[in-house]
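Subject: Glucose-1-phosphate adenylyltransferase

B.,
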Amino acid sequence: MTDRKRHAPISRDTMAYVLAGGRGSRLMEMTDTRAKPAVYFGGKTRIIDFALSNALNSGIRRIGVATQYKAHSLIRHLQRGWNFLRPERNESFDVLPASQRVSEDQWYAGTADAVYQNADIIEDYAPRYMIILAGDHIYKMDYEIMLQHHVDSGADVTVGCLEVPRMEAVGFGVMHVDETGLITDFIEKPKDPPSVPGRPDIALASMGIYVFETKFLMDQLRRDAADPNSNRDFGKDIIPHIVKHGKAQAHSFNRSCVRSAQETDAYWRDVGTVDAYWQANIDLTDVVPPLDIYDRDWPIWTYSEITPPAKFVHDEDGRRGSAVSSLVSGDCIISGGYLKRSLLFTGVRAHSYSTLDHAVVLPHAQIGRGARVSNVVIDRGVHIPDGLVIGEDPDLDAQRFRRTSSGVCLVTKPMIDRLTYR
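Prediction pasted inline below.
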């Protein structure tokens, strides 16, 4: 092996494989028409852009994305925004829809099967390492650090993990580790999660990020595919088997989390509920938000639409286009409306005398004249009728819209249509 090869980043010999087929049913009607990884986030991006940007920023130049549930908008986004990787530079970007490649009646049966069904494509690229990623979380992470940890430890698999309060780990795969970080047990969604040694109130929860040598992974996937009792799932089958029969290493997110000078804590969010999604977007309006999306050292890549600047018009009492502590994307027109602690995606219109307070408004929605909306998520293309009030009458909101227990309302086109045509 040459010195150049020996000192090259491990990421250059790695393929990132993003699992992006899930619906995300806890987001309710937001995922009626799109998979969870395709859900909009932060004004310009989609959720999947974070995992993909982490891979790109980490130096990984071979990426595959497995899609399944209502994948059209996700695939369209990937084709528009992620088509710049070039084969002539030993780069690749493959969108891998469930396409019955193994059997005419079999879609992806689980997370492990979503990799196994594309084993021939992966092996054709011949990466030495594979990093398996979930496509539905918001975080910034340098995967090169995790890859190096995997190589240095000599593990069969390295599992990315979060430190969480012990009883909050009941919805995760949870690892029991020894003092060296060796995983001695892996339990999927335990009722009584094991704690970290010496820290009885903290548990290690799986991030759904796994590093393998490619040959070892393929051997495990073939073994699992031959097991009629398997769920074809990494968390339920592959990882527990390796813990029992091989060497599995835990990798703490704190070791490889990317933070700008503005970020004090390691940031990771599962925006899988309406409340969590709304809160994570509204958090971006803080003076110093917990997630720095302005960090030029670790950019979040996405499809960049060509849009005119945002515009604020009218300057009369009660009819002044203005915004306080808000994010307003391109092609928005605030035409005599008022925004407070709100986040507007591309192409939103807020008409005269309208008020938006703690509102997350997805692309090309319109807020009608005199409407008042607060604590809302308004889906793409929704037209809020003139004078409509949302967020002030809990009982009426619950009859008309999807209202969460914490008082956030999700508003979609069918919900507005039912109001309009009664």
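Confidence is low (pLDDT under 50) at residues 1-6.

T.
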